[in-house]
Fold these 4 entries.
Entry 1:
Amino acid sequence: MYEKTFPNKRFKITLEFLEKHLSKSETILDLGVENPFSKIMIEKGFSVKNTKGEDLDIDQSTLQNESYSVVTAFEIFEHLLNPFTVLQSVKSDKIFISIPLRLWFSSAYRSKTDMWDRHYHEFEDWQLDWLLEKNGFTIVDFVKFTHPTKKLGFRPLLRYFTNRYYLVYAVRK
């Protein structure tokens, strides 16, 4: 169904990871507006609600007022100035997060045309681990994977071998 191209490789790995750890009877609050992956989760039988596009750095009311048993934050935390505050507002004891890892050979992503499409954080794995730990979460499972590219050059070659994404499943103690 999903090829090994971006973002299909990421979608395939993330879906397999969710299906490994999550019952379809649980209610997911997916941080961020409805997106191609939240639609895939719904097609696969998961019960998913999305946030409405509010600035989560400032407004965590959806996290505090909605009913959910699991939070997913796929490719969201790197856009936040303060993911710590967002994690403090999570009511559920289960969370799935994926982030792009900081690469030594490439600077953080920043769109020149869309002020919201930029990465304030590009984490090292230990930084996300610590962020979760400081909010009372323990990592149950994780996977790291590469960012496929069909370009030629030194950096695309490095991307073929260097993990770009970190996907974790954590529970609150």
Entry 2:
Amino acid sequence: MEQLNNIALDGVLQTFHDVAKESVKRYHFLNGAHVKMIDYSENATYLIQKEKEKYILRVNRPNYHSKEEIEAEINWLLTLHDESAIEVSLPIKADDATFVNSVEIHGITYHSSLFTFVDGKAPDEDKEEDLVRQFETIGKISATFHKYIIENHDQYKNYKRMTWDCETILGENPKWGKWQDGLGFTPERIALYNRASKTIKRKLEKFGKDKTRYGLIHSDLRLANLLLDGEKIKVIDFDDCGFSWYLHDLASSLSFIEHKPYVKDLIQSWLKGYSTIRTLTDEEIEMIPTFILMRRLQLISWIGSRDNDTARYFGEEYTIQSDPLVLDYLAKFEKK
């Protein structure tokens, strides 16, 4: 069975390679460039190199985002670049003056986009002292994005992007699959996590979606999507940007490290940086554990429904490591 799965994956990757090679032809200045896959996760990401110049080509997974949704992502990305001092990876127009290419292979349409290459390296989760300091900057970046969206709420309220709320994360047909289908679940663990899921839904329903709490966000500000350049932090990969609670950006910054003992220090540092741009209410701050656990359940869903290096690396151990977080959350909030 594993051999069959590998054969199937090889076929999928070859199709992405074919799309990438065809997409590069849409840029005359890339004639003769070297094309190399550097990541396969939600999408296929390629390093495009011609002499000393580097670019990033993203080939979107078919049927995950529509062309209109990708164009909305790019428009917001360009606006953030113009409205803030935060460095992002910028889209590059093809020869036909569009940002999104469409390539049809085997009757399936694939969309791709070319971006500027951004130098830097992701923050290191094992360097606690550095990470705590960096989270203050991450908090400032998040607040800058949120402040802009709140001030321009009417412009973005009908934007064509996905929604990340209880229904699309914890509901019956979630975007990344059901957490119950994650790895490492026993009937007892499912019952325990179901109590947590119900508590999360109840608290978020009460919390509401006022425009000061909910809007267009990056939604995947995990360490891999933040690049260090000295003390400066650059932001990449807006592929999952969509509508959610602003505090979901904090939770996503803690992706895959929610169980680490230093998380409390990271949160305090994030809040310190965030408060220099926006003020959070006591009610919002009290909701932080709810958003962190919802993100954790979302990632359990993602690991269980994906076949890539990251999902295989975390595996069922990520679910097992979640048990103390779930128990602590229920002790504090199930009856509150």
Entry 3:
Amino acid sequence: MENIITYLKPVSILKKIFGTIIFLFAFYTIVYQSMLFGFFMISFAVYLISSEGTQINLDNRTYRNIWSIFAIHFGKWKPIPEFEYISVFKGKQKQRVNSLGASTTFTDVVFLINLFYDRNKHITFYRTFEKENALKVAQHFKLALGIDILDATERQQKWLD
């Protein structure tokens, strides 16, 4: 069995339920109503219940960014560069919402797990809204890859044990 680390962006249970209901109703629509509208509904349901993430295959020394639906992962494997360290970084994520001519922007704090190589190049492997979760994932990468963690969530950066 291959040694693969998989991290997926969580999907809320309400989105999963709503997406599944739309998915089932889409088949009814395809058979009894409009095939075009049914396929549109299926694409919307897939959007709701799908997730994005990352996988690392430690045996083959490869990684991939994945798109996942019903536990089936899609993505192209690439060779892992020689990682130097892990950074847990605190940033901001903006989301713009438009509705009926009005718009607003929401800003959330997000924690990113970046794996650095070749001095300043990095690959973002994980994104979460909770600092404890980010540090837990970083510890998992530290154990799997044997590299150090830089905590860049505060103004004063520090190396973790």
Entry 4:
Amino acid sequence: MSYSFRRLTRAEFPLLAGWLANPHVARWWNHETSPEAVERDFGTSADGGEPSEDLLVLRDDLPVGLIQRCRLRDYPEYLTEFEALTDVPAETATIDYLIGEAGLTGEGIGTAMIAAIVADTWSAYPDSAAIMVAVVAGNRPSWRALERAGFRRVAEGPMEPDNPIDDPLHYVYRVDRPQPV
């Protein structure tokens, strides 16, 4: 199976809203799903006016998920949270991700799409030496997918959770750009 990415378009907002409303996604993303909220939170990125990328994940050309990708420096408040817990190399990228349908979870899709976006990031962000991801400690499936995709846990500590019901404890994961041999 092959994984590819393309920028989310406004035409996919209804699909995204449905995914965000699915209980397995809503638990961790804690996102409003009205058309107005999806427009508010994803419209600028879809138009290319945001430094982050909202990427539709395609498995064999069928949409299965979403990955958000950006450089931490473009979001100083988020960068500060990372820097409070660990060293952050200049130009470090970060990702967030979801699998849209519950029936697709538990099949290795998360690990595969994370591994694919890591490979893509080394090309798309040639100045990034690392990718770092913060995951709420209670989201075991997410941090296990990172580990299976080659990330290593480098720190843990309090960060602002996406969902206010979560404890602030987060695990910080990192993968470094492969070095030429």
